[in-house]
Amino acid sequence: MEDSFSLLIVLDAVRAERSAFDEQISLVTSSEDEKEALRIIRIRFLGRKSPLATLIRGIGQLESSDRLQAGKALNEHKSLVEEQIAAAEVRFEDKKLKERVSAERVDVTLPGRTKWVGSVHPLLETVFRALEILSSMGFSVRFGEEIGTEETMFDFLNFPKNHPARLEQDTYYLPGGSILRSQTSSAQVSLMRNQHPPIRFVVPGKCFRNEEISSRSLNIFHQIEGLYVDRDVRLGDLLSTLEVFYASFLGQSTKLRFRSSYFPFVEPGIEVDISCFLCRGQGCFTCKRSGWLEVAGAGMVHPNVLRNGRVDPDLYSGFAWGFGLERLVLLLYGIPDIRLLVENHPSFLRQFPWRG
Fold this sequence. Notes:
Blueprint: H1 7-26, H2 34-46, H3 51-57, H4 64-103, H5 122-136, E1 140-141, E2 147-148, H6 150-153, E3 179-180, H7 187-193, E4 199-208, E5 220-230, H8 235-250, E6 256-261, E7 266-275, E8 292-301, H9 303-308, E9 317-324, H10 325-333, H11 340-343, H12 346-349
Parallel strand pairs: 1-4
Antiparallel strand pairs: 2-3, 4-5, 5-9, 6-7, 7-8, 8-9
Helix pairs in contact: 1-4, 2-4, 5-10
């Protein structure tokens, strides 16, 4: 055996390695990253290029009588290092677990956290409800254009040239002469031109009028227009259709009242009132002590409108009606201010839970 490698050298090296290991392992608890520190220590004292690995590879150079003692010392040192590193890793994992448990601790005595669930806006829910009823009555749903011209908005609907609706203070005029629709009735002619009678459809959508915004009115609102054109359509068909719809929509106890009125696109024209379901017809603040609430305008389609829709009024007749949805929403839910429907206050919208 060479003098540079002997049992004494091996034992001295083991003691030096043990001392160095004890010093470094004692510093791990004060390290900012204990896991990384333990990884470095494992490589330093147990890696393939560590002094321990070099000593183990050199055992073959010792006298046969010294190999047993040297091997024993090296194995004991290796086992001790492995045990202490494993113990330190366990302490590290326990520490991390305790920190996590402390951070994620749940106090079961506290009230549960509220999970807010979205809901359908009351206005949109009213649209869905109305369209579902009308669809079950045989009406198909169509959509009209929100931007048109004086011809499509007024001329086709038999509005006289001097009608107040044509004034700028009532209608929104856009650059180039286009107009924002002020009522869904503007879809009647274009849809009649694209379908041969019998025609039975409803048109939901937004309308625009240059009105002052208040607790009872908005300059943007929603309507549903209904149109039925066929042979031998009579006023009685209109009245019975309205009765069925409002009974389904508001309840079987709802009573309807029809009053004569004027609309350029129907002849004859009527106003539709329903019995106030808040006071049951006895009279209250909402119905202005009359017991009735105005909800729609209706009538038999004017022959001029049928002609503009390329429908022969000598062969066909029809009825139409339109109603505003915001008013129905206010009545159904007892909402005092129409502006609440468009201001998107969470405290208001949370009062209308999902009913799907």
